[in-house]
């Protein structure tokens, strides 16, 4: 197949485990641009949380926030918002059943949280503290929860009519619109820029990359991916710490 676009996840896929991008990977992405192959990043991170990596990779497009917000450069193109009523319902239900749950709510303006601890995920983000006592009036794209009672979450997702998934090896769960996700965003983007999914190569490691890897023309899992992701992939590249994405691109696509 002729690859016209490459899309890759960030954490544990194109990023090393220390959250760095190698110089080699940067050069391979630059060579893609030189040869006219479009590139995109598809990440769970909010745009500002991915910005330092986007500055190195310089992709044409950024699918952020688990596919709920899509950018061309720094320009916002489209998104899949939860809707204010659904988001406010979820926040209220989560905190009623689990008052100590840690919440992150992504909006047009940034990320709101009810905690202040900074870690590798939260540090780069434009984030604001809130107790979530007042309802949101901004457009909400994603609600992430670190619960003490995860057994309650499936019922909330069903009541709200949205999808729920857990991040790999973390006590963190995301609520999105039922039609949202990295693959959905990629499909809409492909229609807009006239690139078929069959002409797209997708790289990933986690369950939120599963659909993208299994439904694009070429789906590649890195060696450190979840077993179920590797099972559905067309190929398995070297691990993230071995620059598996860049080496696969150079050897098999360029």
Task: Give an overview of the whole structure.
With 254 residues, the protein is α/β, with parallel strands linked by helices. It is 33% helix and 25% strand. It is built from 9 helices and 14 strands. Strands 5-4-3-2-1-12-13-14 form an 8-stranded mixed sheet, sandwiched between helices. It has a 6-stranded mixed sheet with strand order 8-7-6-9-11-10, with helices on one face. Helix 7 links the parallel strand 12 and strand 13. Helix 2 packs parallel to helix 9 and helix 4 packs antiparallel against helix 5. The longest helix is centred in the middle third of the chain and has 14 residues. The chain is globular. 46% of the residues are buried. The mean pLDDT is 93. InterPro entries: HAD-like_sf (IPR036412), HAD-SF_hydro_IIB (IPR006379), HAD_sf (IPR023214).
List keywords for this structure.
single chain, 254 residues, alpha/beta, 8-stranded mixed β-sheet, 6-stranded mixed β-sheet, 33% helix
Could you write a compact summary of the structure shown?
By secondary structure, the chain is of the alpha/beta class. The chain is about 35% helix and about 25% strand.
């Amino acid at each position: 197949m002729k690859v016209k676009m490459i899309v890759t996840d960030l954490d544990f896929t194109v990023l090393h485990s220390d959250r760095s991008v190698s110089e080699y990977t940067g050069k391979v992405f630059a060579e893609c641009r030189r040869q006219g192959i479009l590139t995109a990043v598809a990440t769970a991170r909010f745009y500002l949380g991915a910005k330092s990596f986007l500055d190195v990779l310089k992709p044409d497009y950024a699918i952020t926030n688990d596919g709920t917000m899509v950018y061309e450069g720094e320009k916002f193109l489209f998104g899949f918002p939860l809707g204010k009523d659904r988001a406010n319902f979820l926040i209220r239900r989560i905190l009623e059943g689990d008052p100590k749950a840690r919440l992150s709510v992504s909006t047009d303006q940034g990320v709101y949280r009810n905690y202040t601890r900074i870690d590798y995920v939260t540090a780069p983000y434009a984030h604001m503290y809130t107790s979530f006592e007042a309802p949101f009036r901004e457009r909400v794209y994603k609600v992430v929860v670190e619960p003490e009672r995860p057994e309650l979450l499936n019922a909330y997702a069903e009541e709200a009519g949205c999808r729920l998934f857990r991040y790999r090896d973390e006590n963190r769960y995301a609520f999105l619109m039922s039609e949202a996700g990295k693959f959905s965003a990629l499909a809409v983007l492909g229609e807009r820029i006239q690139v078929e999914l069959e002409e797209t190569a997708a790289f990933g490691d986690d369950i939120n990359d599963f659909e993208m890897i299994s439904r694009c023309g070429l789906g590649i899992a890195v060696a450190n991916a979840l077993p179920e992701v590797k099972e559905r992939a067309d190929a398995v590249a070297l691990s993230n710490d071995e620059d598996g994405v860049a080496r696969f691109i150079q050897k098999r696509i360029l």
